Each structure stands twice: as structure tokens, then as C-alpha cells.
Amino acid sequence: MEIKAADVAKLRKMTGAGMMDCKKALQEANGDYDRAQEIIREKGKLVASKRADRTATEGVVTGKVVGGKAYMVCLACETDFVAKNAEFAASANAILDIAIANDVADLDALMNVKAGNQTVADMVTEKSGQTGEKVELPFYARIEAPSCFCYVHMNNKLGTLVGFNMEVPAEVGKDVAMQAAAMAPVSISAADCPAEVIEKERQIGHEQARLEGKPEAMLDKIAEGKVNKFLKENTLLSQPTVKDNKVTVEQFIQKAVPGATVVAYKRFSLND
Q1: Where are the alpha helices (DSSP H) in the chain?
Q2: pTM of the prediction?
């Protein structure tokens, strides 16, 4: 059957797929829009399957603060060319909006949320078909606190969410969120640093001391010293601030708002 340009344009608007893909899908579906959309989604699954061994190291990180909650998502692809496409960024923001509207708790739950007649997982697969690249959703985070901040770096590949136990000035929240983005702390403080991270650093310190020929009786003490140094440099509140290395992040916050501290923190980078 004859497929008119207006029909192709309509399907393209509905799916975001390329003009030729839409025309072929409509021809195969004999002009049935619902079936044509299914065909485009099926093509997305085929592309995703063929490119399963590829790495999606480009993409878009986007986030938003809504009241006492903050959300962040990353939609990843293979090339910078696709990542910089306005439609790809719009898809990332659409997924973020779905997460916010449903106040989704985690990535698994987000993938299963339905938007219209498809899930977010379907949307991601469909995007793979539209771009011809491997597209995935590698990260989603949500935090809740009395005062939340979101920072996304200008390259849209790195972002942080930071929550405080009380209201803090916008400039303080932004500085702490940017600090977390730049210095990549492993946790907020030593108290919430994963036990396996601390144990790994302890083992490294122990082995380094042994290789340096330190007495066996001193190895444990030396290893603990190295762990403490690691925690000071790699936990958010203990880190020296980027702006003044004589002041820790905790001191910076306390000077601005006595009693304030960070109670929630998430970070994601496509380059890590």
C-alpha cells in the first residue's frame, strides 16, 4: 500500500525513529500504526541483541530536585555523536520525569515502570533501535533529606546528589555537590564507608609495609595508619575542600550552618 509522508511523519513523532525506519515499518504493517510501533520496538531488540558485546561509555546524566527529594539518571550509548543529539537528551529527561512522577526507589523498579503502553525497559530498547547503537540505563538514584542538591557537570557525563539534615544556603549545597563530583568520595564519612573497601585498604597497607621491610610487629599499626589516611582523603566530610585545602568539607558546612551535615550522597560518572 502507498505510505504517505504525513503517515511517516506521524509515526516518527510517536516513536522518534528515523524516517526510513518509519516508512519501512508502516509498509510491513500495511499502514497499521500499532503494529508499526511494535515492529520498530522489535527492531530495537534486534539491534540491542547484536550489539550486546559493545560498551556504552557515552551518554547523558541528568537530575532534578523536587521538594525534599532528588533524582538522577544516566542514559548511556556508544558514541558522543548520539549522546549530543537533542532527541537522546530528551529521552533521558523523559525517563527522569517518569522516575519522579512515580517516586521510584531504585533502578530495577524504574525499568519496570509503565509509561503509556510500554515500560522504561521497552523505551531503552526502542532507543537502541532508533540510534542503531547499544543503549542502556546503567544508573538511577533517589535521595531524600530536608535539603537536597543536584549537580550535573557541564559535559553531562557526571553528576552528584547531596542531601543535608537541615536547610543550607544554595551556594553551600552547590559547593559540596561540586566537591563530591570532583573528588569522588567513596562515602559520606568513615562510619558509612563499605567494610570491604576498608578491608581492602588495610590489606594493601599491610602488604606495602611488609615489602618495605617493616618489622612484623609493626605491620598492623602501619596498616591502620594507612587506612585512616585513606578515609581522611576519600570520605566527603573529611576531605579538604577544593577551594581551601586547610578546611575540611565538614568544617566548611559547620561554619556556614552550625549543626548541618551531609546525610545522603550519590555520585555517578560515565568516565569512571
Answers
A1: 5-15, 19-28, 33-50, 80-83, 86-101, 107-112, 120-131, 170-183, 195-211, 219-234, 249-256
A2: 0.80
